[in-house]
Amino acid sequence: MDGTGFDPAGGAGGLTPAGLMQYVRAVWRRKWVVLGVAVVVAALTAAHTLRQPKVYSASASLIIDVMAPRFLDGEVKEVMGEERSNYWFNKEYYATQSQIITSRAVAGRVVDKLGLSTDADFLGLAHITDEKARLQAMQGADAVALVQSRIRVIPARDSRVMNIAVDDFDAKRAALLANEVAAAYMAENLALKLRTTEDARDWLEIRLAELESQSKTSELAVYDFKKDADMLSTSLESRMSIVSERINSFNLKLTEVRIQIAAQQARVEAIHRLRKASPEDETWAEALSGASDGPIQDLRRSYTELRMTCAELGERYLAEHPKLLECNRKLSVVREDFLKSLSNVVRSAETSLAESVAQEKNLVRLLDAEKSEAFLVNKKAIEFDRLKRDSDNNQRLYELVARRLKDIELSGMLRTSNVRVLDPARPILVPVKPHVRRNLAVGLVLGLLAGLGVVLLLELLENSVATQADVEERLGLAFLGVMPRLDGSKAPRERDLHVHREPKSTAAECCRAIRTNLLFMSPDNPFKTLVVTSSGPQEGKSTTCINLGVAMAQSGNRVLLLDTDMRRPRLHRAFGVPNELGISSLVVGEGTLDAAVKSTEVPGLFVLPCGPLPPNPAELLHTQAFTDLLKAASERFDRVILDSPPINAVADAAVLATKCDGVVLVLKAAKTNRESARRALRSLADVQARMYGAILNDVDLSAPRYGDSYLGYQGYGQYAEDSKDGVAQS
Fold this sequence. Notes:
Oligomer: single chain
Helix content: 55-70%
Radius of gyration: 68 Å
Shape: elongated
Distance between the termini: 37 Å
Structural class: alpha/beta
Strand order of the largest sheet: 5-12-11-6-10-7-9-8
């Protein structure tokens, strides 16, 4: 790695496991705050609970059926409604009953019966000694609402049992109120039933009178219709039956006549065809069916015989012979009679056809008349059925309403209820309120939660850099290590050289850890020059710089410490070297580097003091002479560490950061403000400084928040102390 990337705006976001552990440690660190808040809240809860008056409760249990018992016949049903087995219906019904029990109507009955509106003890006005003031307060009190507020309905699960519980400051009065509420509910339930029954009866009486009038009107309408339709002697059904019989008879006769007409018409047409085929020959008539009758057959036989006779005589005699003439005369007479008989047969067939056609017409006329009469009867039947139906419906409704009115009158006289008392309330001398144990437990829990809230609030309000998580997650810097808090009773020089004089101490081990982390930040290109700075003064950057130089020198490096804090230099006092010749002198060309560099009691560690304080430190550090000085020092020594001023105070550190390989930021644990540290990082980012990371200084390793993170350092320190005493550690 060549350094560390960082976010000057504030580091990583979100809650990480390290951040969560930080909150856990914060709670543990401020455990006495949590316990103190919990004790205070619990004490306040106990005081409030013990000051509350004792409240007693009594409960009466009722069995509530959906319907009252029915002692009438099966056709009689209550006006209140039918019993259902539907789950939702029952649920809504019992929810409604609960609302009725806690209603003002029920509470008002209890108040009126027990006279609670004038009971000063019940109203909580007994403490008023002035009679007039007490009466005035009683008038302003709402006893009904007070009773309402004390009623609780507790349904028993999967049953029809409901418990009516009443709370009061007197156990006996609580039982009395519970029983009276149950009785008032039963009375209100019965009164509601009676009111509903009365309303239904009034409505049914009005409806019964209307139906009676409608029934009489419809009966008179049926009578008038029968009279107008002449239905007093014969019913429409009988008339319709007679008409139907006539229509059937006419249909049968008409069918016969039409068959006869067809036959006669066929015969007449056949005769006409025969006559048309042989108009001059009488032999056409031989094909007639009527020609075979007796008389016609005799005439035909006579006619045939005479023709034969005349033919024989014509062969014997001349045409003027008397016998022949007489024979022809007789033949002519017989022929004429024969032709007349045939004509009569034809006229008879035609006459029969005409008669049949006339009969068909008459039958059709009669059938149409009967059909008209049938339609008229049907129309009258429809009208009659409508009137009869209206009359029957009105009569049926009248009878139904009359019967229902009788049923309701009987039901109203029957004082049955669907509510029964299962167990009456009895006084219970153990108060139900206040719940001392529960309130104390709740107060303790709330106190603990409030204490945790206070601790978390304090942790959120704390804006200092105190842990490794603050450095890494909130500042976005690599964490190089910690410097433990040194004994404040020691002299400043003793604290500055603590790592050198106590190499096996916890502080020395921490410095070596920081040294190792720094070297591993860039193993391929190790730094030569390093700036040690802080965000503000009094954060221990000079002590950290000295201890880091000692740790570097102990690893075999030649280390030079440069005191570039030209406003408040301190390195020369820490090592006890003169400050007459230093960096400011070398920059202006006075003296040499070899003469200015001073050795220290630490092998391999050298120091270049600040020298006389210049009036313009920042401009002095910007000079090419200082750059050359820094280059010459880096060529002669393995490591050059610069102790710079705080970066938020002056711009010197930013100038030095541009001329060195990297920067280390020193943060004082629980003292350095996060915003101050972020401003320092932004200043370094503006000059594109290369950040190696941050060192957390002045860490109290014995504090709870650091106990788990740096337990190894404490153990090492303990091992060092035991080693001094000659105690072996396993």
